[in-house]
Amino acid sequence: MHSSFPGVYLVCLFLAFCAVGFCVLGLEASPKGFFCEIQPCLPLLITVFFFIGISGDDDFYSGGSFFTNSTDLGRLCSISSQVDVYCPPRKRARISAPFLFGETEFEQNKQPSIDVLPEECLFEIFKRLPGGKERSSCACVSKHWLMLLTSIRKSEYESSKVVKENNDLVSEDVEMISSDEDDGYLTRCLEGKRATDMRLAAVAVGTSGHGGLGKLSIRGSSSSCGVTNFGLSAIARGCPSLKALSLWNIPRVGDGGLSEIAKECHLLEKLDLCQCLSVSNKGLIAIAENCPNLTSLSIESCPKIGNEGLQAIGKLCPKLQSISIKDCPLVGDHGVSSLLASASSVLSKVKLQGLNITDFSLAVIGHYGKSVTNLMLSGLQNVSEKGFWVMGNAQGLQKLASLMITSCWGVTDVSLEAMGKGCTNLKQMCLRRCCFLSDDGLVAFAKSAGSLECLQLEECNRVTQSGIIGVLSNCGLKSLTLVKCLGIKDMSVGAPLSSPCNSLKSLSVRNCSGFGTASLAMVGKLCPQLQHVDLSGLYGITDAGLLPLLESCEAGLVKVNLSGCLNLTDEVVLALTRLHGGTLELLNLDGCRRITDSSLVAVADNCVFLSDLDVSRCAITDSGAAALSHAEQLNLQVLSFSGCSGVSNKSMPFLKKLGNTLVGLNLQHCNSISSRTVELLVESLWRCDILS
User: Fold this and answer.
1) How far apart are CA 377 and CA 362, in angstroms?
2) How many angstroms separate the CA atoms of 112 and 309, rounded?
3) Where is the signal peptide (predicted)?
4) DSSP designation for 90
5) Rounded to an integer, what distance in angstroms lies between the CA atom of residue 452 and that of residue 150?
6) What's the CA gap between 470 and 497, in Å, rounded?
7) Which residue among 81, 168, 610, 657 has the highest number of C-beta atoms inside a 10 angstrom radius?
8) Higher pLDDT, 250 or 45
């Protein structure tokens, strides 16, 4: 104890010196002013503490020196460059252990000095970081620091206060950068194994200094280390500028994470929830209460979300414009009707699929849907004919422009006619798998829907050729699409056809096995102004059936798709290029196995504006490729030779010449073209995307 006396004496001397200083400066003087006065003496005082640590008995301070690292001591002693301090070597610490540790092992076990600080201190330090760049740098140090940074809310950082206090010292450019830091124009998407809490934490910290996160999409997986409430909470605290959030297949995210988003991200406008098994009405209510700017909501396969959540959305989100609900078993009439009745003023897009709703909900749609422009109804098994009839007769869907109905047993001839009368501005109609719809209802609908422009029928097997003729004769359709309608079959038309449908510009008949020569002839007579023709999958049509249609098209065909028409020959292509070569822009002959090089010669000679040509799986050889390359007026951009075994390495110079204008070339399954030839083409045609 005797050897520690000088150290104690020096400490007492320092305390006395401080007391005298306060007395001299006066009682009203602040400690800050006092320490400014004694600042030149600080290096000497540090040296005094150093000697206290290394001199005397270890009973005074058992740890030896206060400074475990001579580098730290050097930093502290460099406060004033005018004072030179002699620092003698530290005295080796005594170790009262029965054995001695090696020096290397002892150094490795020492904890880094910065990690000695408690989390509260680090929290206060991080709060005072000047900007996003510095926060990102700190986040890269360790996971511990990253987690601490994500626990700080954006509003808790003091950088904005510092900028405001030093307004006179900061240029206008810097002020603009600081104010725009959180605009929220960045987009991030995490999919599969990349969707983890750690990555979300990194996104939350990293985007803050680069414009702010505006859109976040998470596509999860069945991995056990997927996104949880923790990761979503990190996004909420660090990204208050978030405007669009999409969560797909995130079973571990529940109401807690969604509530954090609602609490912090008040600018949220779009929310998409799909297969979020843990999210319930509580989370959706939190969104409704805190996100008044919500304009779009999509919910799919969320078994815990029901009527209460939708009711809150309808009441508290006055800007809601789009709603989509699919396969949610707890959603019923009460939720849907409350939502539509409350948000009717601006709600324009409604999609209801696979829900347990009845006629009552459709009646509400028909009455309150005054602003609805797009309506999609699918798989509503509990809605009867009465529901659709009331929806049409309610006269509320005056602004409805697009209607799509799929697999709804309530669509009958009577209900469809009522919808045609009630939706006076309807322009697009799509009916899929409506098994009770027949020709009578379709014709009645066409007569009542005076504004109808586009009609699509898919798997409506009770509709026949007679119904199609009735539709074309009674409305101003611009586009007609028929897909897998097995009821349409060739039959002779006894009575003369009515006035032609000059408004029809686009006809698409796909995979309708009964649509043959007679049907084509009928369409050719009724629709002389066709420009787009898609007959893909009609393996029954022949040259004799298609030629009358080509000859009757007066306006000039622009896009022609004949893929899968197995019986067509070069004769059709010769007629097509001769009659419509001046307007043709797209020609698809994929799978027309009887098409040969003669067709390509005709294309090269007659087609001026053709930009997209597909002759995949045709009987094309090197001669056909040569003919195309020699055409002076042809400027192809997309060319497909996929599956053409007759095209070989000899076509390389022809393809190079065509490559001057090509942006896409398909050489897949061309067995006669070697991989080396493809490599040379890739090197030469660096602007062209080559598939091989």
Assistant:
1) 10
2) 50
3) 1-21
4) P
5) 54
6) 10
7) 610
8) 250
The amino acid at 427:
K
> Which residues, including other chains, have CB under 8 Å from residue 55's CB and lie 6 or more apart?
3, 6, 7, 91
Judged against a pLDDT cut of 80, whether residue 45 lies above it is answered with no
- Per-residue pLDDT tens digits for 7-35: 444 444 454 445 444 444 444 444 444 44
Identify the structural domains of the chain with CATH numbers, from first to last. Answer: 2-110 (no CATH), 117-162+179-279 (no CATH), 556-692 (3.80.10.10)
CB 648 within 8 A of CB 623: no
What is the token pair recorded at 174?
């810097």
Quick one: which H or E segment has residue 8?
Answer: helix 5-25
Q: Using the 8-state DSSP alphabet, how is residue 621 labeled? A: B
Q: Where are the beta strands (DSSP E) in 270-361?
A: 270-274, 296-300, 322-326, 349-353
How high is the pLDDT of residue 206? Answer: 75
What pLDDT score does 305 carry? 98
Spatial contact of 216 and 244, defined as CB atoms under 8 Å apart: yes
What tokens appear for 243 in the block? 């405007």
Amino acid at 549: L
What's the CA gap between 195 and 217, in Å, rounded?
10
When pLDDT is averaged across residues 307-313 and rounded to a whole number, the result is: 97
Strand partners, 689: 664
- According to DSSP, the β-strands at 689-691 and 270-274 are unpaired
Tell me the C-alpha distance between 259 and 284, whole Å: 8
Q: 3-class DSSP state for residue 557?
A: coil
Q: Using CA atoms, how far apart are residues 468 and 481, in angstroms rounded to an integer?
A: 11
CA distance 355 to 125: 52
* 434 token code pair: 């409506």
Radius of gyration of the chain (CA): 39
Question: Within its chain, how far is the Cα of 590 from the centroid?
Answer: 32
**In the beta sheet, which residues pair with residue 377?**
352, 405
Distance of CA 147 to the CA centre of its chain: 27
User: Could you identify the residue written with the tokens 């097995």?
Assistant: 486
d(CA 601, CA 627): 6
DSSP sequence for 340-403: HHHSTTT--EEEEES----HHHHHHHHHH-TT--EEEEE--TT--HHHHHHHHHT---TT--EE
Closest by CA to 667, choosing from 691, 633, 636, is 691
Contact 419, 399 (CB under 8 A): no
- Burial class from Cβ neighbours inside 10 Å (0-12, 13-18, 19+) for residue 379 reads middle
Give strand pairing partners of 429.
Answer: 403, 455
Q: Report which DSSP code applies to 278.
A: B
Which residue bears the tokens 């004694």? 38
Please compute the mean of the pLDDT values over residues 174-197 and round it to a whole number: 69
The span from the CA of 557 to the CA of 583, in Å, is 6
CA distance 636 to 634: 6
Q: What is the pTM of this model?
A: 0.77
Beta pairing partners, 621: 646
Q: How confident is the model at residue 142 (pLDDT cuts 50, 70, 90)?
A: confident
- What's the CA gap between 348 and 321, in Å, rounded? 5
* CA 399 – CA 44 distance, rounded (Å): 84
